[in-house]
Task: inverse folding
């Protein structure tokens, strides 16, 4: 199963005070126990930036933000996709086109990456993914 991981999922998992922390932990425990398997996680460098930045802002701890970043980058089942010119251009077009949506530009890059890679499921607590037509877990 190919799953795109959004910043909200990473932040919930790594932040014990996040209201979705327990749900994120439970989902990843199911993956670790191979109840949901095989799994390949995809994310983007934009999501990575958002996660590391938010962790730093929430905690004021650069060491913790760095540990979170290292955990994402060293994961054997996670692929970090870099936003290239094509993804950027298509995401910008989507951002401008969807005026009635409150999707961020990073959301739009995620949607384009998911579309380009045939990914239908997102590990997220952001309702924008469901609104865009994707299946959301947990």
Result:
């Amino acid at each position: 199963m190919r799953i795109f991981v959004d910043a909200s999922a990473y932040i919930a998992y790594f932040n014990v005070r996040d209201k979705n922390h327990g749900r994120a932990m439970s989902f990843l425990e199911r993956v670790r126990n191979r109840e949901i398997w095989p799994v390949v996680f995809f994310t983007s460098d934009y999501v990575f930036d958002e996660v590391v930045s938010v962790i730093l802002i929430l905690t004021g701890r650069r060491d913790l933000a760095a540990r979170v970043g290292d955990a994402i980058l060293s994961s054997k089942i996670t692929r970090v996709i870099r936003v290239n010119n094509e993804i950027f251009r298509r995401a910008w077009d989507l951002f401008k086109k969807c005026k009635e949506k409150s999707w961020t530009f990073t959301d739009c890059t995620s949607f384009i990456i998911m579309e380009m890679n045939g990914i239908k499921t997102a590990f997220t607590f952001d309702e924008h993914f469901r609104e865009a037509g994707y299946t959301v877990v947990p």
Notes: The domain at 2-83+119-133 is CATH 3.40.50.1010 (Rossmann fold). DSSP finds seven helices and five strands in the chain.
